[in-house]
Amino acid sequence: MKTKMTWAMAATIAMTLSGTASANPGNVERVTEGLIAAGMAIELDDHCGSVSVRMIRGLNFLQGLKRHLSDLGYSNSEIDQYIDNDAEKDRLEAIARQRLADLGVRRSDPSTYCTVARSQMAAGTQVGQLLR
């Protein structure tokens, strides 16, 4: 009887988790924070000529985020839908730009992008690890 109860509980938990997974990959903090960090690194690369994105490291990082979603039970289709969601891209880009502004980036002063990029690299943040 106890074994049947344990299996029933495990099945219930699995169904709950699979239902959660299909809800929205955007609710997975590790993934959203990772995408925001990648967006910040790209923005710094776009505006600071003395730094660049580490392409292979960046691709590996993004593949790791995708693998994490797969491990959580998201299908490739769900992941692709999330990746292709323009509204979500806009939302994450806005967050990335706001965080850069909070760190001192001023659109009117291009040198601030380099200052922030160098400080992120020196601090060893996720953003900094994606830059060289």
Quick recap of the structure?
The chain is mainly α and 132 residues long.
Descriptive account of the structure:
The structure is a single chain. This protein is mostly helical and 132 residues long. It has one domain (2-129). Helix content is 75%, strand content 0%. It contains seven helices and no strands. It has helices at 2-21, 29-47, 55-71, 76-83, 86-103, 111-123, 126-129. Helix 2 (29-47) packs across helix 5. The radius of gyration is 19 Å and the shape is globular. Mean pLDDT is 87; it is low at 1-22.
Q: What does the largest sheet look like?
A: none
Strand content: under 5%
Extended strand count: 0
Number of helices: 7
Oligomer: single chain
Q: From the alpha carbons, calculate the radius of gyration and give it in angstroms.
A: 19 Å
Mean pLDDT: 87
Helical proportion?
Answer: over 70%
Shape: globular
Order of helices and strands: HHHHHHH
First-last Cα distance: 60 Å
The total domain count is: 1
Structural class: mainly alpha
Poorly predicted segments = 1-22
